[in-house]
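Let's do one together. I've listed all components of the complex below, 279 residues spread over two lines.
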Amino acid sequence: MSEIGKVRLRLPASIKPGDVVRVRCLVIHPMERIERDNQGKIIDKKYNYIDKVTVTYRGKTVATFDTTQSVSENPFFAFSVKATEPGKLTVTFHDTHGDTYEGSADIAFS
Amino acid sequence: MAGRGGDRDVTRRSMLGAFGAAGVAAVAGGALGLGGVRAAAAQTLGQNEPLDAALKRVFGGRPMKDGSGMVKLDVPLIAENGSVVPVSVEVSTPMTPQSYVKHIYIVADKNRIPIVTRVALTPDSGQAYMGANIRLGETTDVRAVVEQSDGTLLAVKREVKVTVGGCGG
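Okay, and this is what the predicted structure of the assembly comes out as:
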């Protein structure tokens, strides 16, 4: 399980200034789903799943995902960013156990 | 035995009710200050509830317009594995600081937790687009609800046939 928290970010190969860039990102995370006992009652515990994803570009928040347990294991998200200037794009995942996982990529023009 | 079970059920229900009330308060707060309190937001979204309750809680009974002209919801017709269903939403309206898409919600009607995700966008996104992999418990309608910065709600829905459910519990 040492893989948990590995973030992968994918940008298009070539970006021109002013382009609207579609970014895809993925994090390795179990996204625990609700468990029930034999009577069908929900087991009350602190489920570990990602409930917030923030995307920042050059220090400014571009998009925020609020997610629930209805999102798949090893969640994948896609979003778009308008690339105005070269800079750093960071995606941060927060889970309900208080851990954060971060991935970043540099937007550079070719 | 049955009586005891019933008692427990009542307490569980009343507790859920209390959570629901807290959720409504949190949503009202979130509408004022975009983003809201992180803890409150986490509690409001992922709740085990029927679809009607979820829609009422999140959108407060505001009317939804048909957005099929503007909102493109991309889902598979048949999902063989319900635990990973790719969904993407694209809105054709331009993203300007005056008028932009504020939120995109993904709702899976028959999931135990119907509200799947909420994406808050800013004009810096350039285009209102989001994608995610979601879980579907059974064959269900998937809705995309788009909230524009002036508060208009646009909804589209498509049915996804699920061969093997992915929500387990």
